Amino acid sequence: MSAVEPRIYAYGIVRSCDVHDLAGARSVHGVSGRAVRTVACGRLAALVSDLPAPAETSLDDVWHDPDRIKSMVLDHHRVLQSVIESRTVLPVRFGAVFSDDDGVATALVQHRQALVDALERVDGAREWGVKIFCDRDVLGLRLKRDSDAVRVAHEQIEAASAGRAFFLRRQLEQCIGQEIRQAMIRCVTDSHQRLSAAARATATLSIQPPAIHRRADEMVWNGAYLVARERETRFFAVIDAVRDVCRRSGFDHELSGPWAPCSFADYRLGASDDEGSHRT
Amino acid sequence: MKVRIGHERNTAIADLLDRALNKGVVLWGEATISLAGVDLVYVGLKVLVSSVETAQRMRSVHASDVALLGRRGA
Fold first, then answer.
1. What is the mean pLDDT of residues A167-179?
2. Is-contact A15 A116, C-beta < 8 A?
């Protein structure tokens, strides 16, 4: 696609005034073990590191090698994590490679206002992930005790003839299915509302299939919350509170983080009118 | 700050891949050589799921252009 060979890998954007306080980031090695440094341009600076010379490894080979990708994603993550300990970073999506420092600086100039605005939105805040899992068996038992509709249906089955009991049992299954669904919606809605109140912004993430989360219970919510540092204690208190309320009904809230605000930096800044993502 | 990640390594990697490959600023400039493309998302999934069966299921999710890890099937 381009005659210029790739050289510079970019992790994220910080404010120039924060560059001197990024000792933590500089002590962490970047992809391929190279040192992390900054390319500053006006109020913005990009966190970058050099990639091995193309003669050593072609980028195309790298992008198709799962083991390399895994280690690079971990390096990318580690660099961003080292920044969020003390400063704000706008994460760049994995895989952005520039020809040279000038190219990075040019991109900063080109998208200056959008990047400044985006940094402003995540300033002083970090991302926390909250997943809600549901154990259907526990919830079902709970509903059997607490739901009038389910309890009445059970009583009717016990009193009914064999043929009618069969019919009623099918009705009961449908009823329990509906009640379970409603209970899930209630738990997710309530939890999300309370967590949102303690957060600056929220984002919905994809529900992970069991092959990924490897839990016996079902994932019913996966959300990201952008929380100002000074509000984190409050946010954790809310998590604990909603967890206590929902636990009896078979729900479990799983917290992850802090993350760099990746889910709140989902912008596509194109070269000109070309906004798509590209690879060589 | 005490980190409160309380889950398995596997889930942590899934969360990490979802954020690194699907989220964050896509910064495209004149000198951009390469950006994470669609193929890369699939490579990420291969890292994540080792069994052939799961990888195939993921590929079909991917093909339907659902986000990285897909919604759970009904």
1. 88
2. no
pTM over 0.80: yes
Lowest mean pLDDT among A5-14, A149-158, A188-197, B21-30: B21-30
- Whether the Cβ atoms of residue A34 and residue A71 lie closer than 8 Å to each other: no
Confidence of residue B13 (pLDDT cuts 50, 70, 90): confident
Q: What is the span of the domain harbouring residue A37?
A: 8-123
Say if A242 falls within a structural domain.
yes
Q: Does B36 touch chain A (CB under 8 A)?
A: yes
Kindly state whether residues A164 and A240 are assigned to the same domain: yes
Tell me which DSSP letter residue B73 carries. Answer: P
* Confidence at residue B30, expressed as pLDDT on a 0 to 100 scale: 61
Q: Are residues A51 and A148 in the same domain?
A: no
On whether any CB of chain B is under 8 Å from the CB of A240, the answer is no
Indicate whether A249 pLDDT > 90: yes
Residue B60 touches partner A, C-beta closer than 8 Å: no
Shortest Cα distance, chain B CAs vs residue A55, angstroms: 16
In our burial notation (b when 16+ CB lie closer than 10 A, e otherwise), range B13-42 reads bbbbbbbbbbbbbbbbbebbbbbbbeebbb
For the stretch A90-138, pLDDT in tens is 999 888 888 889 889 988 998 999 999 999 999 999 999 999 999 999 9
Q: What pLDDT band is residue A54 in, cutting at 50, 70 and 90?
A: low
Query: What is the CB neighbour count within 10 angstroms for residue A51?
Result: 24
Closest-CA residue of A relative to B1 is A85
Q: Between β-strands A90-91 and A97-98, what pairing exists: parallel, antiparallel or unpaired? A: unpaired
Give the total number of structural domains in chain A: 2
Amino acid at B32: T
pLDDT at residue A277 in the model: 39
Is this complex scored with an ipTM above 0.85?
no
Task: Give domain status of residue A13, yes or no.
Answer: yes
Same domain, A63 and A78: yes
Q: A256-275 burial string, b = 16+ CB within 10 Å, else e?
A: bbbbbbbbbbbbebbbeeee
